[in-house]
Amino acid sequence: MNQENIWNSYTQEQCRRLEELSASYRDFLDKGKTERECVAEAVRLAEAAGYQNLEAVIQSGSRLQAGDKVYAVCMKKAVALFQLGTAPMKEGMRILGAHIDSPRLDLKQNPLYEDTELAYLDTHYYGGVKKYQWVTIPLAIHGVVAKKDGSVTEITIGEKDSDPVFCVTDLLIHLAGAQMEKKAKVVIEGENLDLLIGSRPLKPEDSGENDTEKEKSAKDAVKANILKLLKDTYDLEEEDFLSAELEIVPAGKARDCGLDRSMVAAYGQDDRVCAYTSLAALLDTQIQPHTCCCLLVDKEEIGSVGATGMQSRFFENTTAELMNCMGQYNELDLRRCLTNSKMLSSDVSAAYDPLYASAFEKKNAAYFGKGLVFNKYTGSAGKSRSNDANAEYMGWIRAAMEKGSIAFQTAELGKIDVGGGGTIAYISALYGMEVIDSGVAVLNMHAPMEITSKADIYEAKKGYQAFLQA
After folding, report:
1. What proportion of the chain, given as a percentage, has pLDDT over 70?
2. Collapsing DSSP states into helix, strand and coil, what is residue 4?
3. pTM score, two decimals?
4. Parallel, antiparallel, or unpaired for β 78-83 and 291-297?
5. Which of 168, 258, 377, 398 is deepest in the core (most CB within 10 A)?
6. pLDDT in the model for residue 212
7. DSSP characters over 351-383
8. Dihedral sign of CA atoms 382, 384, 389, 394 in order
9. Is pLDDT of 1 > 80?
């Protein structure tokens, strides 16, 4: 009940493997700041490990068998990867489920405007954010623009050393007396989270327009200059914003944190720390009796809704297609497969922060350096909207972790009446499968920079692998 700090138990070889995993994880974070980027990188890593696209298998009419490795992608924002086991699918799977969306700012569909010779992009924040954390920090633009001709342009601005960055401005302290009196949730209003992107007007002689158009452009010359740059660089018109998915995220790379380099500081670790360790665990797992699955989904931060969220039928439909390619499909066996499965809903937990001790109940909090966290239930207040894992499954999990020599801890998300949160666990549990929340403790959760312990990341990957092999 009183776990030791696991750093003290690591050998030199374990520390080497820990640092190797942390380096790969930071690279994943840098390459995957959006759901689309995460899916693309997961597919790249999977294909390098011998996974093939399930859609290609279906189109070819090939038959799948034990040991085969396949993946399926939903709208480029969710992905399910499977390593087929030797047992019939109706006996259930071992599933590692995580989400790959993170709090951010999204561009509105009509975002570009000029005010007092400054050009802005209008945004709409996504997920649970403290809005004041998003001002005065360097920001980058990631995403895609789909044009009417069917072409799609990928855009990433603000990550290279040679790129410009962007910013949401704030009121200077000398004039902020009234602002400082406001409550934190309204000190920065959602409609004021607009991105400053330019201040240089387009010269009339550079516009390439006729006299009438030049006179019109002169009224919004800074906006006109931004549109010219978009046209020259990306062949984009203003109306192309209507079919764009452009996300505003913190600029810069994931970094080691602390003089001892024991932590990782980066944007998007909720929940990409669990997504990456789940993916790495699956890719390192050899064929098992049960089919092993890593499911990475979108939209968890706004309720797991939509075609790419956990509430969609993507996972169920993909499992049906998989069973059909194995010659094992019928509706009853699909239901048996889902019901007989065991799942870790892999999501982060709140790390105990002594600077804010009043929010935590110390005996039931997650701590840095004490391993993989299991949350028997999440939700809020009286366990509202939680999946409360049964005692038998918790006992099974304990045995699996002990067999794999995994350091783990149990926790709740703060004091009962202070707040709370949810995961995808309750949705998966609707199939009747065994589900429990598990993950990595995080400081600064939902902030533009979140912090995790390398030791916990290492134990999470090992723990997920022990689960797949149990």
Report:
1. 97
2. coil
3. 0.95
4. antiparallel
5. 168
6. 62
7. BP-GGGGGG--GGG-B-TTS-EEEES--EETTT
8. negative
9. no
